[in-house]
Design goal:
The complex is a heterodimer of chains A (117) and B (166). Chain A is built from four helices and no strands. Chain A is elongated, with a radius of gyration of 29 Å. The chains are: A mainly alpha (117), B mainly alpha (166).
């Protein structure tokens, strides 16, 4: 007994709905009683699509900005650590630079909708 | 998508959706049709939320699956006494379909609702594991373990019936 046999059994015993037409007629009747969603109406549909497209572009822009800033921040951190170990920059300077980097990341994330995605 | 296109799409998808719900409702086609209607109206009203990340049919199945569980929770909260439930079954002509496909109903009888849903989606509706993940909200590991248990159950059932014993 293989997977193929199970699939064959399932396909051979498929339930068929004979009253599809009546079901669709009733469904359309119910839909007529409801307001047409804005994204589906002929007039507003185009505008809704434009807004959705704009929203997507804006999300993409903010995402790229956030990724670039985080990458830059990581590079700065690596450089700072390298400086600290190689040249021996004071701890206070290092802490100040760290706080600044975290601040930049926090500010970027607060501006981007990355968290909502 | 315009309203007409939406209607065209759902008229293509309504049959597999109703079939899936009918099997989950143990052959009660009236209840299944009510649930399918509820699901399709919900899809119509919330079409703006469909972002196209999954297939349209997967999105519809997900709504239908949630409707099924919502209705189950509703039914559980207002439990019907056993006597009246038996009367309802006797009168229920919607269960006729159950007898037309009795072998299938008997084969999936011992499975839990989740196992049934996963099995039907995988074997009957030819959905991929990824699609089943989106529909049921279960992680792929859980889906695979449900499928494995259901497979064992179905094999045992089918091996007892010579028609499929090859």
């Amino acid at each position: 007994m293989t997977d193929k046999d199970i699939r064959k059994f399932m396909q051979e015993n498929k339930v068929h709905s004979a009253d599809s037409k009546e079901f669709m007629e009733e469904l359309i009747r119910q839909m007529d009683l409801l307001p047409t969603p804005a994204s589906m109406s002929a007039e507003d549909g185009g505008m809704a699509e434009l807004i959705l497209e704009f929203k997507k572009r804006l999300k993409r822009y903010y995402r790229i900005c956030a990724i670039l800033t985080i990458s830059l921040d990581c590079i700065i951190c690596v450089v700072l650590f390298a400086l600290a170990f190689l040249i021996g920059v004071s701890k206070l300077t290092l802490i100040a630079a760290g706080v600044l980097s975290v601040g930049v990341v926090a500010w970027t994330l607060s501006r981007s909708p990355l968290i909502e995605i | 998508m315009t309203r007409e296109q939406f209607i065209q799409e759902i008229s293509r998808e309504q049959e597999p959706l109703r079939r899936f719900l009918c099997l989950l409702c143990e052959g009660d086609s009236f209840r299944a049709d009510d649930l399918a209607q509820e699901a399709l109206l919900k899809a119509y009203l919330s079409f703006e939320r469909f972002e196209g990340r999954s297939k349209f049919s997967t999105w519809l199945f997900r709504i239908a699956y949630n409707c099924f569980y919502d209705s189950k929770a509703r039914n559980r909260s207002d439990d019907v006494p056993i006597e009246s439930a038996c009367e309802k079954i006797d009168d229920d002509t919607g269960s006729d379909k159950r007898f037309a496909n009795e072998a299938l109903y008997l084969a999936i009888e011992g499975l839990s609702d989740q196992e049934k849903a996963v099995t039907l989606l995988f074997y009957m509706e030819d959905k991929s594991i990824k699609d089943i993940e989106s529909i049921t909200g279960m992680p792929s590991g859980t889906i695979r373990s449900h499928l494995s248990r259901a497979r064992g159950h179905l094999k045992t059932y089918l091996e007892k019936h010579s028609d499929y014993d090859r």
